[in-house]
Write a structure and sequence with these properties.
The complex is a heterodimer of chains A (238) and B (315). Chain A has 238 residues and is mostly helical. Chain A is built from eleven helices and no strands. Chain A has two domains: 58 residues, no CATH class; 156 residues, no CATH class. Chain B has two domains: 172 residues, no CATH class; 128 residues, no CATH class. Chain B is 75% helix and 0% strand. Classes of the chains: A mainly alpha (238), B mainly alpha (315).
């Protein structure tokens, strides 16, 4: 049957609805999809099996998790005052707000990926060690244990992760050597259509520009929300 | 010798060694209420890293299932790590000053710089960046150690503090990549394209544009990335329904559909390395907090894609 492979997606949806652990959901979905496609559990020379396909793809995906090697250096730097120093840096700039910092970072990230500069996960290299402490410093949100602030800190963390994703996703195809551009070229080529990768990259400009405007607006809204919150706090405890 | 050192396998072996050391420290961590389960998890992950290239794939697959079961039974937990107090942070900031940025900024800078120098033939150009990242991380660790005059165990303790903060979701990106492979092998993408091409109203340009955008964003929402679904949807839907009848520029249709897929990626837990792992890396309370923040922006960007693609196809 043609639609049988979609059963894996149903398993994923059911797992999320039941709030099971995502790791278990994914393994279950993989097993069900494989069984539905008539794959054996462990493959032989000719036919790949479910468990060995899982293992092979997991082994090939190790590059995604290579960032564990950078955790010791980041952790030790944090222990030795990295976050405090980042906070001090941002407080030297009176005009800095959480939103403005995020749009500056996003623009920087777009420029980097547009030049084809890749360096592993931006969340690990920049967001956690640098952008987050700067954002918290700009919001003057660092006295922990305050319930009202917990909500604001949570939102600041979310925007810090988002600015990295926005910049990366909507900027990366500005580089004509990007893997996404290559995917378009090869998909079209297989159907006898030949296109110039630079032509594709040029047409990534409108989307990148729109994404900067849309996210700048979202950051501006966040700044207003944060300002209202801190105003209320000042009124509450004079 | 040089070839072995500059290979990706060397970097995987080093990562595996770091993870196995994390595991050893976890076994000895009395503050962790599940130190055996948690330690075993890191040991299994370290084993797949160090020996993933040598072990038969079905063994690696078995280890992966074991890790998922450990997490599913709630046996992977955080120990309590001493967080530095504000006054300690201030004292450290005064003591080390700007120098503390050096190891952190070194990692991206050295990664980029060393990916510019010519490497051996055995490292393909798209993998150079990962080998560079590995050695840059090690160099940064050494610099941090020398700069702060800490004990080497400090590196392990602090690295383990961050790894613990991420927890078992650390394997999700690889696990989801594996699921994507199984989905592709089972023909999920073609099933979606076949279903959609059966219901699409041909001839109405706006409807075709909208359905193409919904399908690619929906596929990447379900599968966590656009790369598996893109060729199927481009070839199965966009070329026959948009490019051929309306004469739209295939290159422009391609790039707009590809970034339209990112709107789906921004909203899905299946894109764990972008949405779920960062939430735990930034120690958020809500593991869906990043997705919730991104969803409104993704919706506006989706609408912008539909309008742009419509305008382009009308020319």
């Amino acid at each position: 049957m043609d639609y049988l492979p979609l059963i894996g997606i149903a398993v994923v949806a059911a797992g999320f609805l039941l709030r099971l652990r995502v790791t278990i959901i994914v393994v279950a979905a993989g097993l069900v999809t494989g069984i539905a496609a008539g794959m054996p559990l462990i493959g032989s020379a000719g036919a790949p099996g479910i468990i060995d396909t899982l293992g092979k793809a997991f082994a090939n995906g190790r590059i995604i998790t290579l960032f564990v090697l950078s955790l010791p250096a980041l952790g030790l730097s944090e222990r030795c005052g990295l976050q405090e120093q980042a906070r001090r840096l941002i407080r030297k700039i009176p005009a800095a707000t959480v939103g403005r910092l995020q749009i500056v970072y996003q623009f920087f990230r777009v420029c980097m990926v547009a030049l084809g500069i890749r360096m592993g996960s931006g969340h690990v290299s920049f967001s956690r060690p640098l952008v987050l402490p700067m954002a918290l410093g700009a919001a003057k949100a660092d006295d922990a244990g305050d319930n009202e602030q917990a909500e604001q800190i949570e939102r600041i963390k979310a925007v810090t992760a988002a600015s990295e994703n926005y910049g990366n996703f909507f900027g990366q195809n500005l580089f004509f050597g990007a893997s996404g551009v290559a995917l378009i070229v090869s998909s079209l080529q297989q159907n006898g259509i030949h296109v110039d990768p630079r032509h594709i990259a040029r047409w990534a400009i409108p989307v990148a520009a729109v994404s900067l405007v849309v996210s700048a607006f979202q950051y501006w809204l966040l700044d207003r929300w944060l300002a209202r919150r801190s105003l209320k706090r000042k009124v509450k405890k004079p | 010798m040089i070839e072995a050192i500059t290979s990706l396998d060397a970097i995987f072996a080093l990562s595996g060694a770091v993870l196995l050391v994390f595991a050893a420290f976890t076994f000895a961590d009395q503050t962790n209420t599940s130190r055996w389960g948690t330690g075993l998890f890191w040991a299994l992950l370290g084993t797949t890293f160090a020996f993933g290239g040598i072990l038969p794939y079905w063994v690696t697959g078995g280890l992966v299932i074991a890790m998922a079961v450990l997490d599913g039974c709630g046996l992977v937990r955080r120990g309590s790590h001493s967080e530095s107090r504000p006054e300690e942070q201030t004292a450290a900031a005064v003591r080390y000053g700007w120098k503390i940025f050096v190891p952190v900024l070194m990692i991206p800078a050295v990664t980029y710089a060393s990916s510019l120098v010519p490497w051996g033939q055995n490292v393909s150009s798209d993998r150079v960046v990962f080998v560079s990242l590995g050695y840059a991380s090690i160099a940064a660790a050494i610099v941090a150690l020398v700069l702060t005059r800490s004990r080497p165990t400090g590196l392990i303790q602090e690295g383990r503090r961050l790894a613990d903060a991420i927890g078992a979701v650390i394997i999700l990106p690889q696990l989801l990549a594996a699921l994507g492979t199984l989905f592709t092998a089972a023909g999920v993408g073609s099933a979606i394209a076949k279903f959609v091409s059966g219901v699409i109203p041909e001839g109405n340009l706006f409807a075709v544009v909208l359905v193409c955008c919904l399908t690619i964003a929906g596929s990447s929402f379900l599968m966590g990335n656009s790369f598996a679904a893109f060729p199927v949807i481009m070839v199965g839907l966009a070329i026959p329904l948009l490019v051929r009848p309306f004469g739209a520029d295939p290159a422009v249709v391609g790039i707009l559909l590809l970034t339209c897929a990112s709107c789906g990626t921004l909203c899905t837990p299946m894109a764990a390395n972008f949405n779920i792992v960062p939430a735990s890396l930034l120690e958020m309370q809500d593991s869906y907090g990043v997705i919730k923040f991104q969803a409104p922006c993704a919706a506006v960007m989706f609408a912008a894609h539909v309008l742009l693609l419509w305008a382009v196809a009308m020319r």
